[in-house]
Structures are given as structure tokens and as C-alpha cells.
Design brief:
Blueprint lengths: L2 E5 L11 H10 L4 E14 L2 E5 L3 H14 L5 E9 L5 H11 L3 E5 L2 E2 L2 E2 L11 H18 L5 E2 L4 H5 L12 H13 L3 E5 L1 H4 L9 H9 L5 E4 L12 H10 L4 E6 L2 E6 L1
Parallel strand pairs: 1-2, 2-4, 4-5, 5-8, 8-9, 9-10
Antiparallel strand pairs: 2-3, 6-7, 11-12
Helix pairs in contact: 4-6
The structure holds zinc ion (2 copies).
The site of one zinc ion has 4 residues, from loops.
């Protein structure tokens, strides 16, 4: 039984899929539970202008509640959000989370200092080493301040949009990675395994097996599974493959969330 805890629909700017299509495909795949985690990113630079990519929270809630009731005998549906965090937008993100009683919040970095990772602007003026270093320090500084989340999304996303032929070994950033994981664990926060790594044909999992193992070794217990799907064909993609790998790493549970509280499901 799979639980897809990272899923987008047309509430996100980068998805055109109606919410109900994602639900129907999840039912076809026999998923036990899904959580919509549509994008909210404050302070995105678009053609030189700073924009806030937010969603209509009331409509989002209304629609999810409608489908929760319509499909209650077939699948459980949770209401989450993926917050793209930047150091100067944290208060806005925090306010939105406090007002909307989400089941689940993913804390993600998509943009740093108004410079986009996904469009690769962030990498332009720096070496791969410097990009990784700045990314990890930025993530650490953000979670030092920002605690309104459940799991860290695609923790090593800096690799995905950098030079894939020159991925730097995690050991180089072992101290930075440890500090991030220790803080998350201390705060009672989790990480997600994001199976988009298979779609992007990355050589490792996201986050890497090193990071997944290290989180566990340091005492971390909270792990969610997410496909980061933006259309039905990507739902629960690669889940079959990750379960045995997580077991090999010593994971015994994965988590679901209810009003920001984790439930532990035996793997
Ligand atoms: Zn993301
Ligand atoms: Zn996402």
C-alpha cells in the first residue's frame, strides 16, 4: 500500500492537471492515501519583477473537502502545501501556514536570494562547489528560523539542476549536511524521499542514499514518500523500487500526516 505525499495539480502554476484526474489515477493505482502539496512560492523573479506565486487557499480547501467526501470509500486525501522558502519570505510563509491548518507542509528551496535554481540562474556565476556550499548553508539558516513544516523537500535539489556530470560527493559537505539533519531531528521534523530522481535520471536517490542513511543514523524517524508528480503518469512513480531500498537502510516506517502530526506506518 502506497502513500504519495508529494503531488501537484492545477493549483500549482507548473501543472495543468485537474485535481480529480490526480485522484482518479491514484485510485486506479490502489493508493491508500495521497496528499496534495501544491506550490506556494513568495518572491519569485519573473522577467525582472518580483511576484508571489500563491494559491487561493479557500478554494483549495473547498475542493479538497469536496473530493474527500466524494471518494471517501476509495481513498484518503490530505491537504498539504509545498512552501518554497527564501530567507526574506519566511514570515509570509509562516502566516499562511498558521491560518490554514494544513495536514502537511513540505519545506523546499526553489529559489535563493531571488535567484532561481530550477531555471538555473543560481548556478550562473558560481562553481558547482560554491553553489552546493551556498545552498546547504542557506537551508541551514532557514530552518534555524523557520519551524512551521513537517519534512524537508528534495533536500539535495541543488544537485538536480547543477552539472549532473560533476555531482560532488556528499562527504565534501558532510558537516553541513549533518548540521541540517541534526537540526531537523532536534525540531521533530522529517525528510522526504522524492522519487522524481528516477524521472530526472539522477544517479542516486533524492535525497541521496548517503543523506537518507545519515538521517537514520543520527536518530531521525520521520520519512515521507513523494513522487513530486505534476500529472497522473508520475503518481507513485518508482515507489516499488524505493521500499526495499529503505528497508535495507534500516527504515522500518514511513509517515503520513494528520494536522501536522506524523503517523507511523510499517514498511
Ligand atoms: Zn519542489
Ligand atoms: Zn513539488
Amino acid at each position: 500500500m502506497y502513500y504519495d505525499y508529494h503531488m501537484h495539480c492545477d493549483f500549482s502554476l507548473d501543472s495543468k492537471t485537474p485535481m480529480e484526474d490526480m485522484i482518479n489515477k491514484s485510485i486506479d493505482l490502489n493508493l491508500k492515501e495521497i496528499c496534495f502539496t501544491d506550490h506556494v512560492d513568495y518572491g519569485i523573479i519573473n522577467n525582472g519583477i518580483e511576484e508571489d506565486h500563491i494559491i487561493d487557499y479557500n478554494e483549495y480547501r473547498r475542493k479538497i473537502e469536496y473530493f474527500q467526501s466524494k471518494y471517501k470509500d476509495k481513498i484518503s486525501i490530505k491537504r498539504g502545501i509545498e512552501m518554497g522558502l527564501q530567507s526574506h519570505t519566511l514570515q509570509n510563509c509562516k502566516n499562511d501556514i498558521e491560518k490554514n491548518d494544513f495536514d502537511f507542509v513540505i519545506a523546499s528551496i526553489h529559489t535563493m536570494n531571488k535567484s532561481d535554481l530550477i531555471k538555473r540562474e543560481f548556478y550562473k556565476d558560481k562553481s558547482q562547489f560554491e553553489a552546493y556550499r551556498q545552498y546547504y548553508i542557506n537551508l541551514y539558516n532557514i530552518i534555524k528560523e523557520f519551524k512551521s513544516y513537517c519534512v524537508l523537500g528534495h533536500l539535495d535539489i541543488v544537485k538536480r539542476y547543477g552539472d549532473l556530470n560533476n555531482i560532488i560527493d556528499d562527504k565534501v559537505f558532510a558537516d553541513e549536511i549533518d548540521e541540517i539533519l541534526k537540526m531537523a531531528i532536534y525540531d521533530g521534523k522529517g525528510i522526504e524521499i522524492n522519487t522524481s530522481s528516477f524521472r530526472y535520471k539522477l544517479p542516486d536517490l533524492t535525497p541521496s542514499s548517503y543523506i537518507l542513511k545519515r538521517y537514520k543514523e543520527l536518530g531521525g524517524e520521520i520519512l515521507t514518500t513523494g513522487s513530486d508528480s505534476h500529472n497522473p503518469s508520475q503518481i507513485a512513480y518508482g515507489f516499488k523500487e524505493i521500499y526495499p531500498r529503505l528497508k535495507d537502510m534500516g527504515y522500518k516506517y514511513i509517515c503520513t500526516f494528520d494536522k501536522m502530526n506524523p503517523n507511523f506506518i510499517k514498511l
